[in-house]
Amino acid sequence: MKIHNHIFSAALAACCAFVPAAARAADLPPLSHSLTMQAPKPAPALKLKDLHGRTLDLAQFKGKVVLINFWATWCPPCRREMPSMERLSQAFKGKPFVVLAVDVGEDPDTIESFNSQLDTVPTFPILLDTRSHAMQSWKVAGLPTTFLVDKQGRIIASAIGGREFDHPEIVKTVGVLLRK
Fold first, then answer.
1. Is 75 a catalytic residue?
2. Active-site residue among 31, 51, 56, 75?
3. Which of 78, 88, 143, 159 is labelled catalytic?
4. What is residue 23's predicted lDDT score, i.e. its pLDDT?
5. CA atoms of 83 and 29, how far apart (whole Å)
6. The pTM is what?
7. How many domains does the chain have?
């Protein structure tokens, strides 16, 4: 009987060891699906190198709707929203729409390592804000923070915290901007 109790106790302990991790995963709040619309205001300058060393300037995207997301690989909601950002980018492929992901404070190797863990590697540009200067000029208070810039180069919506970017509400907002 002692052997059976020992085996049962060990099995119960092993089983319970996994419950907290599973509970934590289940307890993650869902990503939001809304953007806060605001009175249009000119977007600050944004000129950074991408992972391939090319310099991209927000000014070159005038005439396009641009979703700008400030993020980092160490940020759990940033990690969770990346696949939906790629799906949004693909949904509007061939339209005047661009996603720019601005990584704050990390090097290309860290980002490439993160990308290799994703089911689908992002096809949109990932820009490097290694010294957080862009983050400061855009007045980003926390990660992730997202801005939606209209075709005239004005910020018209923003969001702090993780988003499900391919949610119908966000897709509709982008679609309306593209028709303007």
1. yes
2. 75
3. 78
4. 34
5. 17
6. 0.84
7. 1
